[in-house]
Amino acid sequence: MRQLRLIALPGMPMVQPGDDLARLIREALARAGTRLQPGDVLVVAQKVVSKSEGRHARLAEVTPSGQAREIAASTGKDARLVELILSESREVLRTRPNLVIVVHRLGYVMANAGIDASNVEAQEGDPRVLLLPRDPDASCRRLRDELARTAGVAPTVIINDSVGRAWRQGTVGTALGAAGLPALMDLRGQPDLFERPLQVTQVGLADEIAAAASLLQGQAAEGTPVVLVRGLDLPAAEGGADVLVRPAADDLFR
Amino acid sequence: MRQLRLIALPGMPMVQPGDDLARLIREALARAGTRLQPGDVLVVAQKVVSKSEGRHARLAEVTPSGQAREIAASTGKDARLVELILSESREVLRTRPNLVIVVHRLGYVMANAGIDASNVEAQEGDPRVLLLPRDPDASCRRLRDELARTAGVAPTVIINDSVGRAWRQGTVGTALGAAGLPALMDLRGQPDLFERPLQVTQVGLADEIAAAASLLQGQAAEGTPVVLVRGLDLPAAEGGADVLVRPAADDLFR
């Protein structure tokens, strides 16, 4: 009987720049009464990775460009925030009041380039926001390697974030980075129940895991940014989540 | 410590038209050594719901329209299949070789209107395909009510399918129907960790559950179409999955 367990690791502290996430995760695993086992997957919320990497930006230090001021005027957003969004983006796809949808420099299509102003400490009169990690796949590899070194098991690591979608309402947990799994699982050629080859089917495996973990991470004051997923029988792979980004040339909807 | 368990219910038989899914699920729960508990969620693959509802179509009985023949010529698809796709759709959004993306009559944006030719028995020379359930939300409500009547507990029920996306490669499990949960969970106004109200956040809760279950359902010959999800602390609601469909007028990407 195939089973999956997802465990929200308890007692993770507020993460600060420079914090050793691998150590915090090992301690949280111990609090959960477990340790890493072969095949384990760790899903880490983007915010804590960004915080540990010091990806904060102070709006007071940002000088908006002309383009940023124009978009700010048409959307009602803070021009300094728009400037940060542009600096993190390849291309602006759509703007509407209070909405800027861009292609992030790493290819994700997202509102606000994933920059978040919630759950970030605002110093009095000095608002700070949090950018996405510089290279989420690299962050995952580092965390995987560091846990392999210090815990003796190399887990699959996924960084997830709640991301909006075309066509459907509501955000879903999505894999921004990954290490140690085939993030895009190719089922082409596997036989179906009647032994005929399946038509082309590629499954966004890392995104499905990211969405599953998101069910336990919550959005607001729950404070459980790391979820252990146990029981997935993943094929070995070194790959990252970059393969989940559809190349612009193949995308019919932008 | 918050935990989720997902269990792929073992021994589900090949489903035939007219089969009593509630009974098959009760029997599979018993094989798994459990019974329904308050708060349980059952995720049922679209294919078995469609099969139980007899949503097969024989291509030999389909006469393609002129529009279907045109799209067939430009995509290389069978004109009778295209006719079925059109009959299940409101609007054709994009066509490319071997690809027809439509707005399904219930609002889902999908390739082929969700019509599937894999895992459907082909009689010799008489190929059959499988359409989506007529009304997945209604199918979920019926299953929920029937299980409440016969098992004494009304589970949340979700019908999921693997669906492609804009911007990202790979399909992800997606909720076509639901009963008994807030499929779109509104987090607007909940405080964040610093007691400031969150900005607008609506989570596609039923889609995240659908994606999680998809990890255990597989795509090919695994034969585990029903997944029990235990440990979600869902607020009570009667709602269906229709709220996840973004109205065309609000959609910036079609």
Short overview:
The first copy, chain A, is α+β, with helices and mostly antiparallel strands and 254 residues long. Chain A contains six helices and twelve strands. The interface between A and B is large, with 70 and 71 residues.
How would you describe this structure to a colleague?
The structure is a homodimer of 254-residue chains. By secondary structure, the first copy, chain A, is of the alpha+beta class. The first copy, chain A, has two domains: 5-54 and 133-247, 2-Layer Sandwich (60s Ribosomal Protein L30, Chain: A), CATH 3.30.1330.100; 56-130, CofE-like domain (CofE-like fold, Alpha-Beta Complex), CATH 3.90.1660. Chain A is 26% helix and 23% strand. Chain A contains six helices and twelve strands. Chain A has helices at 21-31, 46-52, 66-75, 79-87, 136-151, 205-217, and strands at 3-8, 41-45, 56-58, 89-96, 99-104, 109-111, 128-130, 156-163, 172-179, 185-186, 202-203, 226-230. In chain A, the strands form four sheets. A five-stranded mixed beta sheet of chain A has the order 1-12-2-8-9. A three-stranded antiparallel beta sheet of chain A has the order 4-5-6, with helices on one face. Chain A has a two-stranded antiparallel ribbon with strand order 3-7. The first copy, chain A, is globular, with a radius of gyration of 19 Å.
